[in-house]
Design a protein that fits this description.
single chain; mainly alpha; yfbu gene product, domain 2; 47% helix; elongated
């Protein structure tokens, strides 16, 4: 691997794939997971139960070939990151989840990417359009 012979990486280690996830896809997934981290920890701190079902991570669509599902599953299940979301599913079985997560991410950014949210901010993010 030190010489860059990529075509044989999968023979050395079968978990290495030839087609890599684009950096912008992996970054987007990490940011979406951070939105749900902020919501989860804010709800715990406030003792708040959100009204919107979108306030809980439902996974990415496993039938989408954009790479979000596979990357999210890898960082959550293999690397053990975003442990606070471990009880949440990997596969949303919904083609609409990514668009909604992107709207949530835009709202979270507009609110300053805070990790301590108010109940109103939680609902704003969850119900983003």
């Amino acid at each position: 691997m030190s010489h860059g012979y990529e075509q044989y990486y999968s023979e050395i280690n079968p978990s290495i794939y030839e087609n890599t996830t684009k950096r912008e896809v992996s970054r987007e997934v990490e940011e979406v997971l951070n939105v749900f981290r902020a919501i989860k920890f804010s709800c715990l701190k406030l003792g708040y139960k959100p009204k919107s079902h979108w306030a809980e991570f439902e996974g990415f669509d496993g039938n989408d070939d954009g790479g979000q599902y596979g990357f999210a599953q890898f960082v959550r299940r293999t690397l053990g990151k975003w442990d606070e979301l471990k009880d949440r599913p990997d596969n949303s079985h919904s083609g609409t989840s990514l668009d909604h997560y992107r709207a949530m991410l835009r709202t979270w950014r507009r609110l300053g990417e805070k990790y301590e949210l108010t109940a109103d901010e939680i609902e704003q993010i969850a119900d983003a359009k």
